[in-house]
Amino acid sequence: QNYPLYIRSIPTENELKFHYTVHTSLDVVDEKISAMGKALVDQRELYLGLLYPTEDYKQRGYGYVTNSKVKFVMVVDSSNTALRDNEIRSMFRKLHNSYTDIMCNPFYNPGDRIQSRAFDNMVNSMMMQVC
After folding, report:
1. What are phi and psi of 124, to 5 degrees?
2. Of 21, 28, 93, 127, whose CB is crowded by the most CB atoms within 10 A?
3. What tens digit of pLDDT does each residue of 36-95 get?
């Protein structure tokens, strides 16, 4: 339904620009999913890659969709040349695994905002590696 279950940004001074990029990236994710059609169902790799670069804010948005149609969007600073496609793909796999752990929790109601210390710690460690 395209409402965020979890949003995190570092640094926080440009947080509004990151939120805008995330929400506009969701439209691109929907377009890519509909363009792929049934090919996405047959595909084991759910990484969508670079969604679109934004020239104004020097950010890149990447996308990933789970089998249950949960969308992950990651926005990174394009000046960070250390991040390659394989690193981004690996980060999405870690996010997907942590999200799966949350979904397996019997006390979590699907659709609620994610409020998990383990998930926060994993996201923070990934963000610190990137920064």
Report:
1. -60, -40
2. 21
3. 766 555 556 688 888 876 666 677 888 999 888 889 988 887 776 667 888 888 999 999
Give pLDDT, residue 54: 63
List Cα–Cα distances, 63 to 23, 71, 117, in angstroms. 12, 7, 24
Largest CA distance in the chain: 43
Hey, what domains does the chain have and what are their CATH numbers?
A: 14-129 (3.30.450.70)
Q: Kindly give, in sequence order, each residue whose CB lies less than 8 Å from that of residue 104, ignoring residues fewer than 6 positions away.
A: none
- How do 47-54 and 59-65 pair as beta strands? antiparallel
Are 70 and 110 within 8 A, CB to CB?
Answer: no
98 - beta bridge partners? none
What is the CA angle 116-10-30, rounded to 5?
Answer: 75
What confidence score (pLDDT) does residue 92 get?
Answer: 92
Supply 106's token pair: 């019997």
Can you give the pTM of this predicted structure?
Answer: 0.82
**Helices 85-103 + 117-130 axis angle, to 10:** 170
